[in-house]
Amino acid sequence: MAPYASDDSTNAGEADDPRVGRRKALRYVVPVTVAGVAAATIGLVPALADSGDPDLPKISAQQLIEKIAASDVQQLSGTVKISTDLGLPDLGGLESGLLSEATGETGGSSADPSAKLTELASGTHTLRVAADGPDKQKLSLLENAAEYSVIHNGKDLWGYDSASDEVYHSTVEEGSKDAEAPVPATPKELTEEALKAVDDTTSVTVDGTVRVAGRDAYKLLVKPKQSGSTVGAISVAVDASTGLPLKFTLTPASGGAAVVDAGFTQVSFAKPAASTFDFTPPQGAKVTEGDAGDGAGAPEHSGKLPEEDFGRDLAGLDVLGEGWTSVATFDTGGEGVPSSGDIPDAGALGGFLDSFGDKVTGKFGSGTVFSTRLINALVTDDGKVYVGAVTKDALVKAAGSGQ
Predict the structure, then answer these.
(1) 57, part of any domain
(2) What angle, 0 to 180 degrees and rounded to 10, lies between the N-to-C axes of helices 18-30 and 347-356?
């Protein structure tokens, strides 16, 4: 079926110890470029559309956005696949170790969702998801005959890693934001975040129809109007009946494979069995208790770093520019990012920085740009950080103008 409404656009002191400063800078640059992107992508749910374009009534982009906003699916279960290609160097399974070195947090539980789910930052993964209202959700990551699950049932939040036989437990207030979802686990959450960017810098159109997981869907196409963004387009398959996003695909402005291609392969809107959300730690498993109300340490739904970390460790957060080319900036109060030669025992982190960083200069002085196919982050030698879904040139220009 041909696309609808081709131009239906919607404008809708440690200070005295330089090593401490370096650790603070490193603490944020790696989460921003790896974990932050992972948090932003794990909410997508796998892709693979069925063949054939269903014949559906015509709908405008505004009507489709309203349909998404009105969607109130409380119960579902299904299988999803997530394929992520951020253009990261091959870390050889070192993601968790890199984050531990960057944050200085070691010895935690392998079942902690905030660490385990960073695996979704690259490759293709299969998930099982289930939900029964705001107080019952389950997400299971199936990998190499092992299973990792996050289960939210009332006030209890559990993480279980069968490979290590470790359990992570935390409590949250029922009905609270943290209780609603320990991690963004549906395409709906990702779509809602994407639609927040819809303004006069955005083109939104209906791009025909598609079948996903056996269901008829409309395709919503969101594209930046501005140059300089690394985002080429976001395509969302929206269930024609319920308004629930079934598939989310983000393609980069540079072309090539999708950065994230995620969508349901199977889905049911029947009420899951109550036993789906039951969990008792296996006998002999190591159980780690998290702080009450910490939401298992999971990232915010937006994929940003926790606000409390910004407030505690950052001098401030400002935004340069607007729309798709906006750049967030903050001051770590550190000395920038050292190379492996500056860190005698840097290990994997030092090698990561050398392979990932690109030295640049500008009105801000000099610094290092850390890049993925979606996010670029500049850390200056005096500890300022600039990060955004913009090209390297646009980032350097924004940093210069921000002086």
Answers:
(1) yes
(2) 60
If you count them, how many residues does the chain have?
Answer: 403
Range of the structural domain that residue 176 is part of: 52-89+101-297
**pTM for the whole thing?**
0.74
The CATH number of the domain holding residue 165 is 2.50.20.10
> Could you tell me which of 373, 388, 390 has the C-alpha nearest to residue 121?
373
Instruction: Work out whether the CA dihedral 222, 228, 229, 230 comes out positive or negative.
Output: positive
Residue type at 138? Answer: K
Its sign, for the CA torsion 220, 221, 224, 230, is positive
**Other CB atoms closer than 10 Å to residue 13's CB: what's the count?**
7
Number of other CB atoms surrounding residue 242 within 10 Å = 19
* Cα 130 from Cα 16, distance rounded (Å): 50
Does residue 33 sit within a domain? no
- Report the distance separating Cα 364 and Cα 361, nearest Å: 7
Long-range CB pairs of 394-400, under 8 A, 24+ apart, other chains included: 394/228, 394/229, 394/325, 394/327, 395/327, 395/369, 396/360, 396/362, 396/369, 397/362, 398/320, 398/321, 398/325, 398/327, 399/327, 399/329, 399/362, 399/363, 399/364, 399/367, 400/362, 400/363, 400/364
* Cα–chain center distance at 155: 24
211 assigned to some structural domain = yes
pLDDT (tens place) for every residue of the chain, 403 residues total: 434 443 444 444 444 444 444 344 333 333 333 333 333 333 333 333 444 689 999 999 999 999 999 999 999 999 988 888 887 655 444 444 444 444 344 456 888 887 777 777 778 888 899 999 989 999 999 887 788 999 999 999 999 999 999 999 998 876 555 544 444 446 777 687 778 778 888 999 999 999 999 999 999 999 999 899 999 999 999 999 999 999 999 999 999 999 988 899 999 999 999 999 999 999 999 999 986 554 444 333 333 333 333 333 434 568 888 889 999 998 877 666 555 444 444 444 455 555 667 889 988 889 999 988 899 999 998 888 999 999 999 999 999 886 5
| Helix residue spans in 196-263 (DSSP H) | none
